[in-house]
Amino acid sequence: MSSQSYQLEERLTTFSGKTIGFCKSIKETTITRPIISQLVRSSTSIGANYCEANNASSKKDFINKIFICKKESQETQYWLKLITKADGSTNNEALGLLNECHEFLLIFQKIVQTMKNKQSKTD
Q1: Contact (CB, 8 A) for 62 and 49
Q2: d(CA 109, CA 96)
Q3: Whole-angstrom Cα distance, residue 89 to residue 105?
Q4: For residue range 64-74, what is the model confidence (pLDDT) as tens digits?
Q5: Residue 13: alpha-carbon gap to chain centroid
Q6: In sequence order, which residues have a C-beta less than 8 Å from that of residue 13 and are 6 or more positions away?
Q7: Could you tell me the pTM of the whole model?
Q8: For 79-120, what is each residue's pLDDT tens digit?
């Protein structure tokens, strides 16, 4: 695994931890409970799928896992936006998580695009 891969993996782990901490700070109600659950699942899935991508059995498997990371990043953004509306507060922590998640989305989009471009050149 390259140094860059390791740094992104650590960054994703930190993001998951921060998201879990953020979710713990939200008052649970019948409205927020399912959103919190979805947010925890999608945010932690990004890093888990990235770990799987780094151990992929083929380039196709790698691209697929990275694409899942991209999709989970988009979903996490959605749940973060929704929880701020449901909780009635937009705080700096939520905005920081949204920004970080957006950066992940851009990173994974770039990886997918680069891999597809390389693949099309060899076809």
Answers
A1: no
A2: 20
A3: 24
A4: 999 999 999 99
A5: 10
A6: 47
A7: 0.89
A8: 999 999 988 766 789 999 999 999 999 999 999 889 878 777
